[in-house]
Design goal:
alpha/beta, 5-stranded mixed beta sheet, 11 helices, 45% helix, elongated
Amino acid sequence: MGQFENLRVFAMVVESESISKAANKLRVAKSAVSRRLALLEDHYGTVLIDRSSGNWHVTDVGQELYQRTLPLIGDFDELESDFMNSSFESSGPLSVSVPRDFGSGFLSDILISFKIQHPEIQLSVDFDDRHIDLTRENYDLAIRLPSSDPGEGIATQIGTVQHSLLASPGYLKEHSEPQSLKELSRHRLLYFGNARRAEWNFSEPGAKRKVVEFHPFLNSNNGAYLCRAACAGLGICKLPDFITHDAVARGDLVKVLADNPLNDTKILLVRAANRRMNRRMRLFSDAVKQAYNQHSKMREI
C-alpha cells in the first residue's frame, strides 16, 4: 500500500508540475511529498523528475511510469467508490460541461433534480458550446451533440436528438407551405450558425441524400431565439425537439415537409480516456439516461 501511495503522489506531482502545488492539493507537508518521490526513485533506481538547480522536468522513464500509473489509480479509486459506504460514495466534486441550448432547454431541470437527490456532490456545470479539452481543463464529463467526430475521449451514446423543419401557421398562410425541397430554398430560412451561405441535409426515400443550399434570412447561434423568431412568423427554422417541443405542443409551430426527414444527432456522454468512471460520474450518467428515456416515451405519446 505504501508503494501505491508513492505512485499516487508521483502522479499528482507530474500533473501539478510542482512538488509544492502537489503538497497543497494533498494537504501534506512539502517534505512528505519529496520523501515519497525519493523513495520511488530509489525503488526503481532511476531519476523520475529532474529537479537539479534551475531545472524541473519529467524524464522519459518518469513519463512512462506516469502513463502506466494512471489506470492503476483509476481502478483503485473506482474500487473504493463502489465498495465504500453509500454516503461516502456519492460525496465529492463533479464537473460537467454541457451545450448551452441543450443544457438550458432540456438538462436544467435534470441537473437541479440531480443536485437535490445528491446534495453531498459538489456539482459544477459549465454551459458552453465550445469544444472543451476534458483532460487539460479537468472536467469529469461532457455532454456533446457532435455533427461529426466527437473528438478525444471515451464516448457513450445516451440518446438522439430529432430535428424538424418548423414554421408558424401565420407564416405558412402568408407565404404558402412548401411542397418540396426545391421550393424550400425560396422561403425565408432561419439558420443556426453564422454562415452567409448555408445548407441543410435531408434523407430522402430510398436512403438518398439531398442538400438544400440557401442564403439565410436570419442567422443566430441561439436556438431559443430562432424558435421565438419562427413563432413570430419570420420564417422556417430547423431546430432540435428539445427546443421546439413546447412551441409545437402549443400550436405556435407546425412541422414542414415532414416526409423529408433530417439526420438525427447523437447525444454523447464523454469522459477523458485517462479517467475512470467513479460513482459520482455513474450516478450522473444514469440520471441523464433515465431522464432522456422518459422524455422519449412522452414524445411518442
